[in-house]
């Protein structure tokens, strides 16, 4: 089991010193990665399920923020939970992600993408809300194609992207980046299996539905010629979760748990991360 932390700028704010201190402390504690969320734009009445989002909360750009974190850390991996893939131009995104990976010496390794749930946000960036699933599928294909292409260029003819003999450099270290898929639907699970390297489901789902979605992801991975055994399964956890809860998640096939401090007070947040790291002996993973 691997453990990571989340830093929600709507909750913690966008103070640069605080972000860096949180990331550096998580790194010292032995956490594997730090994740940031994304919303491109909000508006009054925007809601995820029954929960309305205050439109003035600060959602910092996750990739810019992770690049900032990378410059002040040495080991901790960089992740998004989730990057709203249909709202990014895949050719531009391929360059941004590869650049962060190169400059961080190979740490942009936990990219998790989703399709978004706010119709007004899609409209604001010129995306037909009904097309966002197809756009996400195509964007994943474009990212992988551009990262794999050589000096002769690669070509693509899709519903949303078209180009000929295109070159995109620099490449991610090793030539590719893992892409995880987030969501809480069976469509997201299928996308994770057929195109992704892992599944990071959110939402309030019962154990039966969660198990069904994981099986869908594994089946889709096998059908696509991917190794289900190498498929990663990430879940949210709480900062006070006991060892028994983690053991139960491991039995469900979970390979990574992401937690966050529960308090806005910086000193108390550091104490919470330290206590979690001690409870699960994360420092031993660094040895």
Verbal overview:
This protein is an alpha/beta fold and 287 residues long. It has ten helices and 13 strands. The strands form three sheets. It has a nine-stranded parallel beta sheet, with helices on one face. A two-stranded antiparallel ribbon has the order 3-4. A two-stranded antiparallel sheet has the order 8-9. α3 packs parallel to α4.
Instruction: Give the helix level as a range of percent.
Output: 40-55%
Strand content: 15-25%
Mean pLDDT: 97
Strand order of the largest sheet: 5-2-1-13-12-11-10-7-6
- Specify the oligomeric state: single chain
- Main beta sheet, described? 9 strands, parallel
Find the count of extended strands (DSSP E, 2+ residues): 13
In whole angstroms, the N-to-C terminal distance is 16 Å
**How many helix segments?**
10
Instruction: Name the overall outline.
Output: globular
Poorly predicted ranges: none
Q: Spell the H/E element sequence.
A: EHHEEEHEEHEHHEEEHEHEHEH
* Structural class label: alpha/beta
Radius of gyration, in Å, reads 19 Å
SSE map:
Layout: E1 2-6, H1 9-12, H2 16-29, E2 33-36, E3 47-48, E4 51-52, H3 62-71, E5 77-80, E6 83-84, H4 90-103, E7 111-114, H5 119-124, H6 132-148, E8 154-157, E9 162-166, E10 179-183, H7 186-195, E11 198-201, H8 207-223, E12 232-236, H9 243-251, E13 256-259, H10 266-279
Parallel strand pairs: 1-2, 1-13, 2-5, 6-7, 7-10, 10-11, 11-12, 12-13
Antiparallel strand pairs: 3-4, 8-9
Helix pairs in contact: 2-10, 3-4, 4-6, 7-8
